[in-house]
Amino acid sequence: MSKIKLSQIKDECFDDNLIQTIVYSDIEDDGLNAEYALVFGNSLLMKERVSTALDIYHMN
Amino acid sequence: MGGINGVSNQNHSKIPEAIKMKELALSLGILEEDIIVEDSSNNTFENIHNAMHLLPDDVSNLLIVTNEFHLKRCSAIFKKFYPKIHITKIASKDGFSDKNNWVLSDNSWNSGRSLATYEAHLLVNYAKGNKIFDLEIDEELKNITEISNSIL
Question: Distance between CA atoms of B1 and B136, rounded to whole angstroms?
């Protein structure tokens, strides 16, 4: 399978498939072992983020 | 458990997002002593660097909690600037900008599609600006039509 670097992608190449690959590939993770959690701010999405952090907090 | 960080570029009130998030966290039962606030950043890049100044130098494991569309850029910044820290990515699902549903929305402001599209351009610009490593992606792309059809 051939690869392309992010910096080589031109504006005119953006389509749904490319966006899916750039943004959403390799984001799966497992395990919750950590000393701290960083919850990123966003005025419109903070409820979801804090709620997710709360679930993790109570797991700890 | 760690910090509540905030950026303010989409926040039109005078109260930093981080403060609002702290208030929300407190109202949900998180103890104040378990919260660290970073309220001076204007974007993700600054947010991470400022937050790292607030944490002990010997921190080795961190969870990052954010929406799915934002995880890649956050983890990529850590990989470049804090390579010794193990990052665990935790997705906050919102039902409209997630991996399996962003494509279903139109391109209106703050839709899943607009967020994902903007994020893709940001990742490319971050790579060009040396803010993240110039990641390689597979040219043989997964067909997004299959994804959207699978949940309709």
Answer: 33
